[in-house]
Design a protein that fits this description.
By secondary structure, this protein is mostly helical. The chain has a domain at about 20-135. The protein is built from 11 helices and no strands. It has helices spanning about 5-15, 20-40, 45-55, 60-65, 70-95, 110-130, 130-155, 155-165, 170-180, 185-215, 230-240.
Amino acid sequence: MKDKIYTIPVHDAYLSDAACPLCELEKAAEKNLLEYYLGPAMMEPDIRVTTNDKGFCRDHWKRLYLSEENRLGLGLVLHTHIDDLCKNLGTILDKSVPDKRKGMFNGKDKSYRQRIEKAAEAVEARAGSCLICDRIAYTMDRYIEVIFYQFFHEPEFRQHFAAKNGYCLPHLADLLRGAAKRLDQDEAAQLLAVLTAQQNGTMNKLREDVEWFTLKFDYRNAKADWKNSKDALPRAIQRLTGCRDLE
């Protein structure tokens, strides 16, 4: 496959000891994008148009701020983004205010609920839009395409895929959805046979580790070995959610 931009990171992720290879890919993609939007690109006119319009989600505004790489650039982006918000949402908010007047010819303002709901939807749409999330979603979709290609065309990669211990649930869902979208019935049967076996094995082992963690608090097990359960709680949360901030 010629697209080295995507194949090399996929190979590296599957050769790593990451609990979820796709989390490793997503982490690297996010890091690159945070650096990109805090770098010189921040001042490019076409980028500013998109940052003004879309902005970033709560988590990525926070990460951009905490990086402390370019506070001035971030301030400029925030200024023009908020300026765009004021122009866009100001009119919608003004229109959402119910008409308090009552009279024989005026009557009650029967549509005020719909206008308030429309305003809430507009605010949610702006608060939930995120350039980085969109770019990550595009990149991860390409990675999944590469994973499927290599699984069926590169025996060595197929061995690496089969050797992993499954995925976090959000990325498991991405793989399943990608299989439904991109693979024919025979291909889906081959890949999902491997995927479900490794995922079920990992989840069953995780269940045992979490259970033993709880049983260790029983005085009768005080002197027993922790086995593989000392870090069972963060591993379980990471497996369930894909959260990467529990080290």
